[in-house]
Amino acid sequence: MIAYAGERIIGTVRVLSDRVCNAYVVDVWTYSPYHRQGIASQMMKIALEELPGQHVYLFTEDAEEFYTTPGFKRRGVGLELVVGTWLVNSPG
What we know:
Layout: E1 2-5, E2 8-17, E3 22-30, H1 39-49, E4 55-57, H2 64-68
């Protein structure tokens, strides 16, 4: 999802979903001059409306209050693995 002010992109929300039962919020971003104007909240509301019946998960270290407001609950499980060198996507 993309939010615009005129032709300028001022916000994005990316969600991965199997469109059946599981979804993951990859990231939420708002251009700094537009912070705290409800743009990210509105984008999240719209994104979540597109995921009825799905378990939606995300990771955050610095925005927990933002996500608990619409009802997300803390879940302390998570694992990660970087395959090869992070952000180096070509073999060799």
